[in-house]
Amino acid sequence: MVIMIEVDNLTRRFGTVTAVSGLTLSVPTGEIYGLVGPDGAGKTTAFRLLVGALLPDSGRGSIGGHDLLTEIEAARRLIGYLPQRFSLYPDLTVAENLRFFAEVNGLPPPEWQPRREAMLAFVGLAEFAHRQAWQLSGGMKQKLGLATALIHRPRLLLLDEPTGGVDPVTRQDFWQLIGKAVVEEGLTVLVSTPYMDEASRCNHIGFMQHGRILAEGTPQSLIEPLHGRILELVASPRRLVRQVAAADTAVEDIQPFGHKFHLRVQPGTAVMVQQRLPAALTAVGAVVERLAPIPPLLEDAFIQLLHEAI
Hints:
Blueprint: E1 3-14, E2 17-28, E3 32-36, H1 43-50, E4 58-63, E5 66-67, H2 72-76, E6 79-82, H3 94-104, H4 109-123, H5 138-150, E7 156-160, H6 168-185, E8 188-193, H7 196-199, E9 204-209, E10 212-217, H8 219-223, E11 230-236, H9 238-247, E12 251-257, E13 260-265, H10 270-283, E14 287-293, H11 298-309
Parallel strand pairs: 3-8, 3-9, 6-7, 7-8
Antiparallel strand pairs: 1-2, 1-4, 4-5, 9-10, 11-13, 11-14, 12-13
Helix pairs in contact: 3-4, 3-5, 4-5
């Protein structure tokens, strides 16, 4: 197995704040790895350390075998990076933006010209090649950002919350492009996201909080410990329902999911809770529509990890 990203005990502080704390990460070539966590978890700082925009206070890392401290320029040549606040040049056309980023990455005209056409077709922007970037929709700007990150044929694609602020259809289209790029370009992808549906598309996930990885594994392995421990409750009034459910000694946590609640119960207690909780709710005047076990979600696993980390 060839390792594309190897990070060991990487730490970065800003004054008294430790943004990345002992980060250890290993991502094999050809894999999509997701860093999942809320705002402030340290994901963006981790990305900046990987591209050499920041230096670590301690620890070490490598990209494609190139040390991040002593061979950062060689490492950068392997990377395509789409930062969280990616800025296109609004007065340049789509085609001109691609040319600019190709030349910045050292591609001569005989290379970037056919590559630009290929990238325009890949992201579906060929018919908009001569439109100025400021005239593009949010989703089209994201696609152009992806094309600029891929223009120089990187081996590693770093995507920092690439679908923030775009609609669900655009997110779906963008992820289809990522999957296609992995297959056609032979890429390794490290992507950060707060969205669990996106995380489920990754080969492996690292749940990140307070600058460190709380747990990592495949999406299935991370939810496996919660099988048989998540109950879905539909009942009203919601404030009273939450109060009564939380008071049950077997209920470890209760979280709202739309108009429903997810209850995480202690191992082996699901049947008991299903038997006694509806009666307890009815006794105080609540109306219970449904209480039943459901397969756990990544959200359930992440919430449990966050509570354990407190």
